[in-house]
Structures are given as C-alpha cells and as structure tokens.
C-alpha cells in the first residue's frame, strides 16, 4: 500500500520540479497584479492548474464579475473533463466514490499524461502520490515567486527553468513513437493545428487552442488509424 | 468584492469540472472509435501544449530551440523524464550564458 504512494511521489518528482519553475512565474504575476502572497498561494493550493489561474488573476485584478470567472474557468479547464473520463478507463477496482472525489482534484495535463503512460491499472494510493509532489511543487513555487516579485533574479536561470515542463512532455511523447507510426502522425498533426491556431487565430486563448487542436487530431486519428483491441 | 470569494468560485468550478466526470463515469468504453480517441488523446494534448509554446519558454528562440533539440534526442534514447527535462534546461542555460 505504502510503496504505491511512494512510487507515485517519485513519478511525480519531474512534474513537481517543472511546476516549481512555472508556478514561480505565476507567483510573480499574481503579486504584480496586486494580490497578496497568501492569496496567490491559496489559488495554487486550491486550483492546481496553470492557464486557468493566470486567467483568474486577470479577472480578479480587473474586478470582473463572478459569471465571467465561472465561464472563463469552464472554457479553459474543460479539457480536464475529457481527461477525467479517459482516466476512468484505467482505474483499478479499489477506486470507489470517495477515492474518486479525492483524486479528481489533481487531474492536470501532466499528471494525466504520466498516469496514462503506466502499464498497470491505477490504484488510489499511486494517484495520491502522483498528485502530492506536484501539488507541493506548485504551491512552493508560487510562494517563492510571490516573495521574489519585484526583486532581481538572474533571468538566464529562470528562463532556462521554463523549459523543464516542456522537456518532460517531449520525454513522454517521443519514446512510444518508435513502436506506433500513427502516434508520429498524431503528434505532428496536433502540433500543426496548435501552431496554426496560435498564429492564425490569436484571439483563441491558449488553453482553448490546445483542446481544440487535440480534439480535431484525435477524431481524425481515431477515424483513420483505429487501434487494435487491447492496446488502449 | 473580496478576493476570497473569487478564489472560492474559481476553485469550485475547477474542481467540479474534474470531479463530476471522474466520479460519475463508470462504464467501460467499448467503441473502437472512442477507444482509439482515448488512446491518442494524451499525446495530442501534450504535443499541442508543447508546440509552438516551447520556442517561447526561455524568452530566446535560439536557446529554446537548442533545449528542444537536446530533449528530442535524449527522449529518443528513452532517458528518464527528469534527465530529459533537466538536460534541456541545462542546455538552454549554457547556450544562454554563451550567446
């Protein structure tokens, strides 16, 4: 039981380190928008999401309405619903309603991707571990960023740290491509759509462009390259 | 309006978006189309999140491109996530100091 939690924590370490640097930036952003360090940390601890939080502090800073807040979070974070459904297909039998309600809190793009890359079914303890370290990293980074806001940092260092998370994404998507040629197509098509939306339709928010690119790509791929049974 | 109310609403919406489908969805998906869709989804999401954003991650396209190349190469040789991620950052840092 305990070792599953520890394995989850270990698998969550690269995510935690990547989050540490990303949330550092969020902490700076939040304090510069006029929020207290405590509020910034509170947001990170209760939301655990990047794009949604960045949009959220924009609304708070501008004194926006709660309806605006609800709609923005809904659109930007809707992809988590899709990931949640996808994850339910990989859960082992010990995932009952309370475990699901707890673990659901920690469904992020990165945690989802690492969980889906596991060979065996997912246990509640493993998922709790996999969420625990990134949550610590995310919250700690926000705190440090908030405290450091306004002070001078070596930019060359914080800039380089910005690559951590993306480096991890590449490490997740590239190795399986060697065994599945349709995956190469999926990765190229998704990247292509994402580039297209970024430059051709800059009014579409980042989070929405990502989910739109992924949806179109997966519909095409499921239609043209259906997988054989027992591979999913 | 108090910042606490904003945060509570924000957290509540974000949690429900994750919790409702995760808790309520109990069926096994059998349709080959949707099974394929689910199989490809994580890769499509990560790829769309990475490109083109990775080239802006360091604030300098050259250092970002070098970091990306290092990550692609090491990932191709199956190195662990943390090694690939750290090496990409390190490469960008070294090039950044030198450029």
General description of the model:
The complex is a heterodimer of chains A (232) and B (99). Chain A has 232 residues and is an all-alpha fold. Chain A is 75% helix and 0% strand. In chain A, helix 5 (79-88) runs parallel beside helix 7 (109-116) and helix 11 runs antiparallel to helix 12 (206-224). By secondary structure, chain B is mostly helical. Chain B contains 4 helices and no strands. In chain B, helix 3 packs antiparallel against helix 4. At the A-B interface, helix 1, helix 2, helix 3, helix 4 and helix 5 of A face helix 1, helix 2, helix 3 and helix 4 of B.
- How does the major sheet of chain A shape up? none
Mean pLDDT of chain A: 88
In total, how many beta strands of chain A?
Answer: 0
Q: How far is the first residue's CA from the last residue's CA of chain A? A: 26 Å
Unreliable spans of chain B are none
Most extensive protein-chain contact, per-chain counts: A-B, 103 and 75 residues
- Fraction of residues in helix of chain B: over 70%
What oligomeric state do these chains adopt? Answer: heterodimer
Counting helices, strands and paired strands, the structural category of chain A is mainly alpha
Structural class of chain B: mainly alpha
Give the CA-CA distance, first to last residue of chain B: 47 Å
* Total DSSP helices of chain A: 12
How many independent structural domains of chain B? 1
Secondary-structure map with pairings?
The complex is a heterodimer of chains A (232) and B (99).
Chain A: H1 2-32, H2 37-47, H3 50-62, H4 66-77, H5 79-88, H6 97-103, H7 109-116, H8 124-148, H9 155-161, H10 164-173, H11 181-200, H12 206-224
Chain B: H1 3-24, H2 32-50, H3 61-76, H4 81-98
